[in-house]
Design goal:
This is succinate-semialdehyde dehydrogenase [NAD(P)(+)]. It contains 17 helices and 22 strands. The chain is an alpha/beta fold. It has a 7-stranded mixed sheet with strand order 16-17-18-13-12-19-20, with helices on both faces. The protein binds succinic acid.
Amino acid sequence: MIGQPSLLVDQVRSTAQLNADTPPVALFCPDRSLLQSTMLEAKDQAPVRLNDPTLWIDDSLVNDEWIALEQVPRFPVTNPATSEVIGTVSDMTVEHCREAIDRAHEAFKTFSKTTPQFRADVLQDFHQLVLANKEDLAKLVTLENGKSLTDSMAEVKYAASYLQWNSGEALRLYGRTIPSSLPGTRNWTQLEPVGVVAALCPWNFPIGMICRKVGPALAVGATVVIKVPAETPFSVLALIELARRAGVPPNVLQVITTDTHLSAIGDELCTNKKIKKISFTGSTRVGKLLASKSSGTLKKLSMELGGNAPFIVFDDADLDAAVGGALASKFRGSGQTCVCANRLYVHESIHSAFAAKFAAAVDAMKVGNGRDEGTSPSHLGPLIHERAVAKCVEHVEDAVKRGATVVTKQRPMPSRGAFFNPVVLADAPQDCLLTDEETFGPVAALIKFKTEDEVINLANETEFGLAGYFFSRDAARIFRVADALETGMVGVNTGVISQAVIPFGGIKESGWGKEGGAEAILDFCKVKAVI
Ligand code: SIN
């Protein structure tokens, strides 16, 4: 198991103590060679062959040690491609969560005082370790999330890019000097870490979304209690082990795996006074619940919520580019991302041509176990569970009842696992379940429109406002439509927008706050004005 954790804690504490008496700025830089964790022992029951078998972890991280929690029930995790149980993890309770918050609170006292350079170096090493272990991480993501290996590999690199970006951001925590309006005074601002952050992360990007939250938190010197998605714990546990190997100090990251205590743990994270910020990625319904529950302690919130993205193809678009963009946007992660195109508006003059090309491309996609040989970006894995399949079926049936036509082939799906044959619907009506709520699956509804004004109104006629896309070759229209779309992000002539360097996030009921870009750091800081 891991060596010398208490020694490390003492080392960090005593250094902080020393520095506490050294005015004016008590920053310190722990000896990173003392913070490297020792290697774990490999477990024999790993259901997948890893280059580094010690990354198969089913224990719980308590006081910087991976331990099996005695007398705590465990819950099963299944492979959505086979419906087989791949392992079990501890169903941690609200007491475990409270202890984790206490440890993170204690660790904050010293971690918040580390130098930005120390944190930048740790993040840089974390980034390198994620890349060095990308094959193992991708295999774990595919095993428990189902997405194709190619998709999983893209996620791991995407995740790593948030660590790299935030490593740089740690060195750019700038305040401002502000000319004073009060005689005899000077003003400046300084950024201070927000405190203990609760990160509630989804299963659709088990590695990506954690790096997007943990990256800025580590950069500013905040500590984090991570609520792990119950569907995909193993990739997260491996990721956290890599964080430890990179030299993230003890207890800075806390990890809660839970299934049956989810609601009680959510309540604790929302009401515990030691938590100063909640960073959530998930549905608008749960986001609203968390926002209302945490109002009693007025926590800082970042909410990355539902999407229902419009995707508009104008009559002057490059049709092949638009088909490529629609495929990339709609079918990433088998349609289970919050920025997936959900409502595809196609100008009436090109609707049939677009539908024919798009349907042919979708029919050419392979569907099967994401880990199979020959996986490619056009390989779709299963959905996360049967409930997700049922929602797709419901949305297709509803649209067909209201006049849409299925233009893709019906293919037999594997008999086991949560598979769904991808569907393109032509002539879908504007009023149907598909346009009203996120499908979160591989169903693409094509809706006809006549004019630019009409389609802008249709695109904006939703409470959501995360991402929007459009394809056009008319320069004046590009500026007009980019301005008019009520979304936090707009893809112009591209279906791929996600990058660590942009402020990712929505408006309206798609949430608050930004993840990525220069803006993300501010969400993890308090701005203090000194006069
Ligand atoms: C999400 O689906 O929540 C995130 C998608 C992305 O980062 O591209």
